[in-house]
Write a structure and sequence with these properties.
The chain has 17 helices and 20 strands. It has 478 residues and is an alpha/beta fold. The longest helix has 22 residues.
């Protein structure tokens, strides 16, 4: 059983250890007061229950910090375009770094402070993050909660700040209630332009954040300039704190559509983009001292965000691995779609290419491939597997023609064994994967190629001419 209720597509699908709906109702009055877009930080988001509900109910961007593996799957299942997930076990130092350059309208810290060794530092850090802070924490009578030694001190320290009690709900560890406290914590400035700004950069200067329930602006004293605040976080924060949702591919794809300003921006790098979920917005620019060409800087930023990526195209023999590899090669990937795979013979050339494709049929040269050996050579790459499938009868006839087997029955056994091995390795390696159907490729070659390339975030450069290689097996008279 998960800690929180699981929320997917507007409804709870399973109950967790902690009751969640009444706790969400307790924080809604704080959210309801806003008549403008807001940014919410959810520290220790667990299954994302509160962020998913806020993202659905309010004009917001919800930023979740959590090191739990299942949360990414829940982000994908919910499909919300205003959620950001930083997959990280956050430290006190990192919370302070976020506080130096980000501003949140609402900060949620439910049952996380007692998990920090430096609980006092964590408490002080969360008070620096935004305007409204909501904390839930075990009380001294919650004797089965972890880190018992610190719990009374945390409780007393928070209580000394005169919070407003907005809820008390049953603990999952002890038959007592846990308080939910609200703190009004106006934050009126940031001290850094972005999270890892070099020390040699000019200081940001005096910055004022002017916010109320209806409007939010940022004022730069050095430039004597006021600009509307954009909900979300700096793209550099996403980069440095292991952002995983939206995916880097999704963000890079969005960056492709950046409209360059008429006047040279001069600094189109990640720290000058705000990530709001499924879109990015370019900020600042126009500094006469900035030296960078806009087109080159944007191309470098896209490359940096995307990172190094490898596609492994795998499938049973005669299911279209060569064809799919050809499509990827002709649309930007380095690789070979013939029988000879250059990377098999010269794997060192991988380091010179950021976007590669490697093909493997199952079996390969008479043996069952072990994808782990390829993974070891692809360290530093984000790996996506593309599994090819084809009508089994046509696959079998093709296998007979190339003398892999003697009859259709033997081919069926070989195909079944191949896919059992393929999907077991996908599970073992926790690969992201896509399935490509050869029969759909020959039925709608142009449209299916476009859909494939879009789904794996490759720009469409060239569509491959495809002929129907299944027809001959159904129209011969042998």
């Amino acid at each position: 059983m998960s800690y929180q209720d699981v929320w997917i597509n507007g409804k709870g699908v399973s109950k967790g250890q902690r009751e969640c709906n009444s706790r969400y109702e307790a924080i809604k009055p704080i959210l309801d007061k806003y008549n403008r877009p807001i940014t919410v930080l959810d520290i220790g988001a667990a299954s994302g229950y509160f962020s998913f509900r806020i993202a659905t109910d309010y004009e917001s961007t919800c930023v979740m910090i959590e090191d739990s593996t299942p949360l990414l799957s829940l982000c994908i299942k919910n499909g919300l375009d205003n959620v950001i997930y930083l997959k990280k076990r956050i430290t006190v130092e990192e919370l302070n770094k976020i506080a130096s350059c980000e501003h949140f309208d609402v900060v949620i810290a439910f049952n996380v402070l007692h998990h920090f060794n430096d609980w006092r530092g964590a408490c002080d850090a969360v008070f620096k993050l935004g305007d409204n802070l909501i904390i839930e924490t075990p009380g001294p009578d919650d004797i089965n909660a972890c880190n018992q030694k610190a719990i009374p001190d945390i409780y007393n320290y928070l209580d000394s700040k005169n919070p407003k009690l907005i809820a008390q709900t049953l603990s999952h560890t002890t038959k007592v209630t846990r308080p939910m406290w609200y703190f009004n914590t106006p934050k009126t400035t940031i001290t850094k332009a972005y999270i890892d700004v070099p020390n040699h950069n000019p200081p940001l200067g005096e910055v004022a954040i002017i916010a109320n329930n209806n409007e939010k602006h940022i004022y730069f004293q050095r430039k004597k300039e006021t600009k509307p605040w954009i909900k979300g976080i700096n793209l550099r924060t996403y980069q440095k704190f292991n952002g995983v949702f939206p995916s880097r591919d999704d963000i890079a794809y969005c960056l492709e559509f950046t409209v360059l300003p008429e006047k040279r921006h001069g600094d189109i790098f990640p720290w000058n983009f705000i990530l709001a979920g499924d879109y990015v917005e370019l900020i600042d620019g126009g500094d006469d001292k900035a030296l960078y060409d806009d087109k080159k800087a944007l191309a470098k930023t896209i490359k940096e965000i995307r990172g190094k990526k490898a596609f492994l195209v795998i499938g049973a023999e005669s299911t279209g691995t060569k064809l799919v590899t050809e499509i990827l090669v002709k649309n930007g990937c380095k690789g070979d779609y013939g029988h000879r795979q250059e990377f098999d013979h010269s794997p060192k050339i991988l380091k010179d290419n950021d976007l590669v494709v490697w093909r493997r049929s199952f079996p390969h040269d008479g043996n069952w491939p072990n994808l782990s050996s390829l993974v070891n050579l692809l360290k530093g790459y984000r790996i996506t597997v593309i599994v090819t499938m084809r009508d089994w009868y046509s696959t079998s006839r093709s296998n007979i023609n190339i003398k892999r087997v003697d009859n259709v029955g033997a081919s069926y056994d070989l195909i079944q064994d191949a896919y059992l091995r393929i999907f077991q390795q996908i599970i073992d390696n926790k690969f992201e994967y896509h399935i490509v159907n050869y029969d759909s490729l020959i039925a709608e070659p142009k449209e299916y190629q476009k859909i494939l390339l879009q789904s794996i975030h490759l720009p469409i450069k060239e569509l491959v001419n495809i002929t129907n290689q299944n027809r001959k097996y159904y129209h011969d008279t042998q």
